[in-house]
Design goal:
Largest sheet: 2 strands, antiparallel
InterPro entries: LEC1-like, LEC1-like_C, PX-associated
GO molecular function: phosphatidylinositol binding
Number of helices: 28
Protein name: PX-associated-domain-containing protein
Strand order of the largest sheet: 1-2
Number of strands: 6
Length: about 725
């Protein structure tokens, strides 16, 4: 009788690859699910109905008829952390009683695990009133979901929200791996005496050593003490100098990827520039001159959040309820900037409507009618387009009159797609303005007031000891420089006729952003030094929070400086158990996908290291920065589904439209554009391995992984009780 073949088991490398696959797909799936209006209602703590008062669904124009989310001050709102004692005006510090159902992991276990263990425990955030979560923020998220903002698929281009959402997803999955799997230890188990800033290997080692010291050593305590006496963080140790250089390179790479390599980059720069130009910095600095912290905070809130209209007055005194009370300064800025965008897109629709060779009036009318359909009907059209391998334009026109799509020329189809993209972009901005600026009750304004109320004691403590005007000026100067760098460098002699042709610019390099960060890092050091030196009570509070937050990133088998009975990082062992419970045939089916992903991670790690070496070598301007997370992010963008480019044709992917933007989007026109940016984008992706298909792994273990996270998440750990009095 033949011996039975042993059941496959996972090596450490395979387990790490499996963990990477599961966290990557689960995190993005949870973020994408927020597009469903019902998701946030099932999310669980802290978005459960703590106060029994949840806003009713918003109507199509972003308004609600519910009185929830009153615009009165939130200072009297009940917090989910009660005060230490009656009559104490200090920060609330004790956790309120929370039922197991309140703190359940619910529909989004990874996001909630991150949320509960880190952001919700931050001093200031943990004192925010319960209504902020269950009424204000939950209401805003639900209203945005109900607005049914457009998809990249329909616009035939990668949208701004898709770009930012995928970036956020990769950041969250990285944090999740640290919380669930524990922070890896360094090979040397701590810092070294020397690091070569010109060697990529040494810079990577400095990061591993620093993380080891933060999580398993006492580096955070050491740093807070050091910053109280010095504003030269580089001089702390060779390890700190090296890791700062490592982080500068990665931050510069992130900025370069967002604002240069992404087709949405120029538009994002334009948004930042517009918003930056409308902030009244001079008035802000004048307000900060007030010596009394309470008066200063009140004046700042009045500057940005006060509304002076008949509706706001009648709502306040009770004559009306939920009447349109106008906009405050912040809402007005948002409305104006998005209004400028809409005006540019309107030019695109007008141009196409007037084009004698453009689509027929009936075709454009059908596209406009599609805008007025329900979210379910628009989603149905999108699914039909994917299943039938027909463009979204063709499916929309077929639903109105099958002859419309048949009569389209290739050029007319392209213009129809541009027309649809412009209509969708206008609708998106109208919906965003409706939710943020014109909703009643005004959840946006009240949310900001709640945030300020939570951080007010810390603002008071810092304002009493630190001149914040200087730091506001530093921030303004940094943004000015950042915008200037992001616009690129003028190419000498780039225009044949300076009177008739716009100036030509070359795109900024990774080194340009790195130089900007190096020039301004001293401003951040100064801010940290003044805070640690002048407001020790605030420093002590955040130090106590960090000491408790860090334990969530520890592996149970690693020795820790000091003592800690609370450790996390047990998910790796549980993954082995999940895999062992699979049938042998299923194990053999998914092992090739796991091995392929392990090889992919190794390959992108080597590419990232070589890119660091290119930058520190300083031989040329680099158009591709390091960072495995950037490559994982790009893989999400590349896999995004995009409508076919012709009436009938294959569904495209994000990698097929890397240079495409919605026609008329500010900052995307060729006027004053970058020279050679298309080549730079192609060069950045050249040689990158394609992320392997992990769908078989998700099908086999995705649901079990989700349940495992939910089962291991505890409800009795809501963070430090430290506060300032």
């Amino acid at each position: 009788m033949a011996a039975q073949e042993p059941s496959p088991t996972l090596t450490q490398e395979q387990t790490s690859a499996l963990f990477n696959i599961l966290t990557h797909f689960e995190t993005y799936d949870e973020i994408e699910s927020l597009k469903d209006p019902n998701t946030i209602s099932k999310y669980g703590y802290p978005f459960n109905n703590v106060t029994g008062n949840t806003p009713s669904p918003a109507s199509k124009n972003g308004r609600s008829s519910s009185p929830a989310g009153s615009t009165k001050s939130s200072n009297s709102s009940k917090s989910w952390r009660s005060a230490k004692s009656s009559g104490n005006d200090s920060i609330a510090s004790r956790p309120a009683q929370i039922s197991a159902s309140d703190a359940s992991v619910a529909e989004s276990p990874i996001l909630q695990t991150i949320f509960k263990r880190v952001p919700l425990t931050i001093p200031g955030v943990r004192e925010i009133p319960a209504e902020f979560w269950s009424d204000r923020l939950q209401g805003l998220i639900k209203r945005f979901a109900e607005a049914d903002l457009s998809e990249s698929y329909d616009k035939a281009a990668m949208g701004t929200r898709k770009t930012l959402a995928t970036a956020f997803s990769v950041m969250m999955e990285t944090l999740a791996r640290g919380l669930l799997g524990g922070c890896p230890t360094s090979e040397t188990g701590g810092r070294s005496e020397k690091y070569d800033l010109k060697k990529a290997e040494d810079l990577e080692k400095s990061f591993a050593d620093t993380m080891h010291e933060f999580v398993y050593g006492g580096l955070f305590d050491e740093m807070t003490e050091y910053l109280a006496h010095s504003d030269d963080l580089d001089a702390h140790s060779p390890m700190m100098e090296a890791v700062i250089e490592y982080e500068i390179i990665h931050l510069a790479s992130f900025c370069h990827h967002v604002f240069v390599l992404s087709s949405e980059g120029p538009y994002l720069v334009k948004l930042i520039e517009s918003f930056h130009g409308m902030i009244p910095y001079a008035v802000v600095r004048q307000t900060l001159r007030m010596s009394n912290a309470a008066t200063m905070i009140s004046a700042m809130l009045k500057l940005f959040l006060s509304k002076l209209s008949l509706g706001s007055i009648s709502n306040y005194i009770g004559i009306t309820r939920n009447a349109d009370d106008g906009m405050n300064l912040l809402q007005r800025i948002i409305s104006v900037i998005l209004g400028w965008d809409s005006a540019e897109f309107k030019k695109t629709t007008d141009r196409i409507e007037k084009d004698s060779n453009g689509p027929s009036k009936a075709a454009m009318a059908a596209l406009k009618e599609h805008m007025r359909k329900s979210p379910k009907e628009r989603a149905t059209a999108r699914e039909e387009s994917k299943q039938q391998s027909r463009s979204i334009v063709a499916v929309i026109l077929d639903s109105a009159d099958p002859e419309l799509a048949k009569s389209l020329s290739e050029e007319q189809h392209t213009k129809c797609q541009e027309y649809l993209a412009a209509l969708l972009s206008i609708r998106d901005r109208d919906e965003i303005v409706g939710v943020v600026c014109k909703s009643s009750p005004d959840l946006f304004t009240q949310s900001l007031r709640d945030l300020v109320a939570g951080f007010e004691p810390y603002i008071r403590a810092i304002h009493d000891k630190v001149d914040l005007r200087e730091h506001i000026t530093d921030f303004q100067t940094f943004l000015d420089q950042f915008i200037a760098v992001s616009k690129g460098k003028k190419v000498e002699g780039g225009a044949a006729d300076q009177k008739s042709e716009p100036a030509k610019y070359s795109p900024p390099s990774v080194e340009d952003y790195a130089d900007l960060l190096r020039q301004n890092k001293g401003k951040l050091y100064k801010w940290l030094h003044y805070g640690a030196k002048s407001a020790p009570e605030v420093t002590a509070t955040f130090k106590a929070w960090a000491d408790e937050a860090i334990v969530h990133f520890r592996k149970p088998e690693v020795p820790v400086k000091g003592s800690s009975s609370h450790v996390e990082g047990r998910m790796m062992a549980q993954l082995g158990n999940l895999f062992s419970e699979l049938p042998d045939d299923k194990k053999k089916e998914i092992l090739p996908a796991i091995d392929a992903h392990a090889a992919y991670l190794d390959a992108v790690g080597q590419i990232s290291r070589s890119r660091i070496q290119d930058i520190v070598g300083g031989e040329s301007q680099t158009m591709a920065g390091p960072g495995i997370f950037l490559m994982m992010w790009q893989s999400l963008l590349d896999s995004t589904l995009i409508t076919p480019s012709t009436v009938a044709g294959p569904v495209r992917r994000g990698k097929d439209v890397t240079d495409a933007t919605a026609e008329g989007k500010p900052g995307s026109s060729s006027e004053g554009g970058w020279v050679g940016v298309e080549e730079a984008r192609q060069a950045a992706s050249k040689g990158l391995p394609e992320a392997p298909d992990g769908s078989s792994v998700i099908a086999a273990l995705g649901e079990a992984f989700r349940k495992t996270i939910a089962a291991t998440e505890t409800t009795d750990d809501v963070g430090s009780d430290a506060s300032i009095d």
